Amino acid sequence: MFPGMNKRAIEAAMKKMGVKQEEIDAKEVIIKLEDKELIIKNPNVSRVEMMGQETFQISGEIEEREIEKYKEEDVKIVMEQANCSDKKAREALEESNGDIAEAIIKIKSR
């Protein structure tokens, strides 16, 4: 936490201030955003409680992953029923707000 300082002294000072800290043995942390996920591999996670507030401190290797708007299963159904490519199926699902039947009809009527 503080380089060059005695860990016990830091813990004692935190205890006097009413700060509790607990290390959490996490394997992976995922933060879900509107359009993507942040995946933190090999995380160091600490739970800190201070003045009635609980916070988490996380560090590690960060990866970003885009969130798929539609299930793979939905895309496959549209592809099979409309006999089209993956790209066309996804475009049709986007245009029809995820309605599978509407997406199939749109592609077939083109």
What order do the helices and strands come in, and which of them pair?
Elements: H1 7-16, E1 20-24, E2 28-32, E3 36-50, E4 53-66, H2 72-82, H3 86-95, H4 100-108
Antiparallel strand pairs: 1-3, 2-3, 3-4
Helix pairs in contact: 2-3, 2-4, 3-4
Question: In words, what does this structure look like?
Answer:
With 110 residues, the chain is an alpha+beta fold. The protein folds into 2 domains: 7-66, Nascent polypeptide-associated complex domain (Ubiquitin Ligase Nedd4, Chain: W), CATH 2.20.70.30; 72-108, Helicase, Ruva Protein, domain 3 (Orthogonal Bundle), CATH 1.10.8. The protein has helices at residues 7-16, 72-82, 86-95, 100-108; strands at residues 20-24, 28-32, 36-50, 53-66. Strands 1, 2, 3 and 4 form a 4-stranded antiparallel β-sheet that branches. The N and C termini lie far apart (62 Å). 9% of the residues are buried.
**Strand pairing plus helix content: what structural class?**
alpha+beta
Roughly what percent helix?
25-40%
CATH hierarchy class name of the largest domain: Mainly Beta
CATH superfamily of the largest domain: Nascent polypeptide-associated complex domain
* Total domain modules: 2
Q: What is the averaged pLDDT score?
A: 90
Bulk shape: rod-shaped
CATH architecture type of the largest domain: Single Sheet
The counted number of beta strands is 4
- Main β sheet profile: 4 strands, antiparallel
What is the helix tally? 4
The percent range for strand residues is 35-45%
Examine the coordinates and then state which fold CATH places here, giving the name of the CATH topology of the largest domain.
Ubiquitin Ligase Nedd4, Chain: W
Query: In sequence order, what are the helices and strands, one letter per element?
Result: HEEEEHHH
Uncertain runs are: none
Taking all Cα atoms into account, the compactness measure Rg is 24 Å
- How far the N terminus sits from the C terminus, by CA atoms, comes to 62 Å
